[in-house]
Fold:
Amino acid sequence: MTQFSPFDTTLWHATATPAPDTGPLEGTVRTDVCVVGGGYTGMTTAIELRRRGHEVVLLEAQEAGFGGSGRNAGHCTPTFSYYSLDELRSLLGHERAARLIARQTKGADMAAEFIRDFQISCEWKQNGYFHGALTPSRMDRIRKKADSYASVGCPSRVVDAAEAKRLTGSDRFHGGWMLESGGHLNPLSYSRGLARAVLQEGARLFTRSKVSKVDRQGDRWHVRTDAGEVVADKVIMATGAYTDGGWKGLDKTFRIKKVILAATSPLPDDVRAEVLPFDGTMHDGRGDIFVYKYNREGRIVASMFPMGKRGRDLEYTRRMFMDRLRWLHPQVPESTTWDYYWMGELDMQRHTIPRLYDLGPGALACTGLSGRGVPTGTMLGGILADWAEGTAEKDLALPVERLKSAPPYMSFAPALMLRWYGMQDNFAARRDGVELPPHA
Structure:
C-alpha cells in the first residue's frame, strides 16, 4: 500500500468541523457517473453533475478530504503558479486559455459561493492575497503581473512600500501586488462541508471504499472495491497526488512533491494587530516561497517546500521557519513555538496546470493540480461535468490527452528550479543592496 504523510497530526485534523456520517460501499449500485476521489475536484464534480440532473456515486478510499484537500495550508489564491497568462495562451491557444483563465481567476469566488450556498463553516475569509517585493528591482515583475491579471477582470493593484507595511506590518517590502479576491480557510472543514453538500444534493458518497479495479463490460464501466461494485455509464478518476491503484499508470502521470506546513502557538491580540493586520494570505515574494496566514485561533500557518536540511532535520526546519517569520515580523514574540508540524504531497507535473487523460470510452482522469488546490479543485468540477455531459473536446477549458507518464526529469526538476529561484533572488538582493533573509 502506498504510504502518505500522517493525516492526524495536522492542525486541521485537530480543529476541523466534524465529518458527515458516511460508510463503505457494499454490494452493487448503478449510476450515471462514478467519481473516484473525495477531494475538492471529485466533490465539486459530483455537486455540479447533480445540479445538472445526473445520478452520481462518489468513492473515497479514506475519508473526504484525506488527501491534499484536507491537509494543505488553506490558501485560496486564484492565480496560476508558474505560467504567465500570455504563456498559457501560447500553450493552450487563445480560446481555450481564455476559458481556463476565466475559471481559475474566479476560483476563490466559486469557493465563496459553495460556502455561502451550503453554509459551510470553514473559517473562510476573502481579504485578499499579498505578494511582496523584497527588493526594489522585483517591482517591475510585480507591475507586469498586476496589469496582466487586471486585464482579465481581477481586482488587482500595485502597492508601494508604505501601503505594503500597512497591510502586512512588515517594513521589509518595497511594495507588492494585492489581489483582492484571494481568500483563506480551514481546508479540512471546507472538504467536510463539500462532503455534506454532495449528500445534500442527492449524490451517494461512500468512504473507506478504495477502488481496486476499473474495467469495461459491454457499454458499462464496473468500478470495484473490496466489498462492492459501481456500474456506471461514465467514470471520472480524480485522485490527484493520493492516487493509490485503481487505474494502472495513473500514478505515473505526475511526480510527488512534498510540502512542509507548520502552525505557531496563538499570537496575542496586540501582536496580531501589528502582524499581518489585513488578515489575508501573505507571500514573501521569493521564488523559494514562504507563504503564511492566520487561522481562527490566531495561529500563523506557514508553508515552504523541503530543500536540503529543510524538511529532513526537524529541529533545523522549525528554527528556519521561525527565523524567517521573525525576520519579516520582529513583533512576533521570541516565546512563540511551532505547535503543529506536518507534511503533504502535491501532484506536480511539467505544465503545472491540471491534465485530463482519456482512459477509454466514457472514462477520464484528472491529475496534476501542482499546488493550487483550493481554487483549482473547486473550479475543476465544472470542467469535468462539462466533459461528462458530452461537451466537445475543443470546447473544454482543458485539452484531453492520452495517458502518459511524466518525464523522468520531473523527479528532480522542481527542486532544481527552487534552488535556481533562490539564487536569482539572492543575486537581486545583493545587487540592490538589500539584506538577505536568514538561511537564504
Summary: The longest strand covers residues 338-348. Residues 413-432 form the longest helix (20 residues). The chain has 13 helices and 19 strands. Residues 23 and 207 are 5 Å apart (CA to CA).
